[in-house]
Amino acid sequence: MPLKPGANPYKILGLETTKCTEKEITKAYRAQCLKWHPDKNLDNKAEAEARFIEAKEAFEFLFDEQKRNEYDKAEERVRIVEERNRERMEKADEFSESQKRRGNTVDDDVAKMTPTQAAKKRKLDENRIRDEMEQVRKQLEREANEEVQRQMRRVREAAAESAAAEKSAPKLIVKWVEKDGDGYDEVELRRIFEQYGKIAQISSIIAKKSRKKCIIEFEPTEKNLWGAEIEQGKTGKPEIAAEWISAPPVRKDAEKQKGNDLNQMSLEDLEAQILGGI
C-alpha cells in the first residue's frame, strides 16, 4: 500500500533529517519493526500492526529514490512558503506598531486643531489604516489559499497515480523453505530482485512453520521483468521458487505467456496475493 497522504516517512521511522543514507533508512526501519512487531506487542496488537505496516510503507517510500526526491522538494517548497508567511506576519506586526506610533503623533497634531478639523483628520486616518490592514489581510489569505489548493492538487494527483499503479503493477509470489533461520529478509529479497526491475514494494513475509512466502510488486512502468520468475536465490541460502500472479507485459520478441488462473491457486497463495495488494 502506498504511503498515506500527509504522512511524514522520516518521522515515522524516527529519522530527524532528510539527508539520510540507504543504510541509515534500513537501520531505522529494522528498529521500528523490532519495536512494533505484533508478536512482541500482544497487549496492544491493533496499534502494533498499524505501526508495523506504517513503518513498512515509509521504508518503501524512502527507498524509492524518485519518490523520496519529489517528497523532499515538496517539503522544501512548503518550508519556503511558511517562512515567507512568517516574514509577512512580522511585517504586518511592524506595520501595526508603526500605525500605533503614528496615531500617537496624530493625537499631538489633533490637539492643535479645531474640533471639526480634528474629527475630519481622525476619520481619514482611520479609513486609511483600515484599508491598508485589509490589503495585508487579503494578500496573506490569497497566498495561503493558493498554497492549500496546490497541496490538495498534489494529493489528488498522487492518489490517482497510486490507484492506477496498483491496478497495473506486475506482482511476483516468492516462496522458500527456511532451515535454522537461514532464509531471506526484505532487504535481501530487494537486492536479489531489483536486478530485474524497479521494485515498488514487498509484502510482509507470510510464515507457515518453515515455509515462507511474500509478494514482490514491481513498478508498472517496468517492461522487461521476465526472468525474475526463474530466480533461484543466493548460494548457501534456501532455493527460491517464484511465479507471476500479475504478469508484466509480454515483449514482442517473447513467446506468449499463459496467464495464471486464480481459481487454481492454493488458499495460502491467494492470501499472499491479497496481502500483497493491500
UniProtKB/TrEMBL annotation:
> One Pfam family name from the record?
DnaJ
Q: Where does it live in the cell?
A: Cytoplasm; Nucleus
Superkingdom of this entry's organism?
Eukaryota
Q: Where is the J domain?
A: 8-75
Give the main localization category.
Answer: cytoplasm
- Gene Ontology CC, one term: cytoplasm
Chain residue ranges for the region called Disordered: 86-130
**Does Ion transport count among this protein's keywords?**
no
For this entry, list what GO says about its biological process: spliceosomal complex disassembly
User: Where is composition skewed (Basic and acidic residues) in this entry?
Assistant: 86-100
Give UniProt keywords alphabetically.
Chaperone, Cytoplasm, Nucleus
The protein here is known as J domain-containing protein
Species in which this protein is naturally found: Caenorhabditis angaria
